[in-house]
Amino acid sequence: MSETVHDATAPNQPVDGTRAWEAWRAERHRSLTAPTGNLALVETRWIPDGRRPDLDAERAARPDGITVTSVERTDLVTGEPEYGLRVWDAHSSAIEHFRHTEVFPYDPDWVIDASYTPVTGARTVAFEHLRDNGGTRQKVVPGDIALTLDGRDHTLSAFDDDGTLLLVFGDPTNGTSTYGAGRFLFVTHAGPGRVTLDFNRAFVPPCGYSDQYNCPMPPRENRLHLPVEAGEKRPVFRDGFPAQS
User: Which of 94, 175, 188, 221 could link 196 by a cystine bridge, Cβ 3.0 to 4.6 Å?
Assistant: First the structure.
């Protein structure tokens, strides 16, 4: 799994839609609160001058419940690899205060069949990221997803997330009933030239659970005109714990 999404589950075609969706929700909760789930990430630290972190030194003398891993990205200015550390706390304040993620009720009308046209070559699309101050990072988009919503045609760009198509999309619910920066959705291949978009499984991106992530934001073509009242809304915390907006 790439550094964009941590421990999320791509959907399978359900036999019983509601039952499968409830199982997906339970797995999402387990994954979010896991020792290296989205809620556990408490630090992302980039090492200067292109140096690689010393994981053994960083892991030494860490208390129980702390996990240290490495992460890599491309420097926006130089184009060179940049290396960093991530620190996960199994007993983070976010985990301790997390209640659940609000969701819309399951709606089978939001399971959308769409066409998928692969493109030749390694086509990339620029995605602005939440913490890059307007900078963009190139993501490989291996094909076009075409669908019609409420009589309007859309061609969407889903990028390759370690072999799975990940759609980053926005809609008019963002910032009101759903997470402000958009939501994510894994796209399921449904046969030659076909894909399924089950918006009931649209989910809050990792940035909605920890400010230590840098998530891609929806490009223009992925901003839908129709409110998508399906899938996850926002995380809910207890005792006034601040949620990411």
Answer: 188
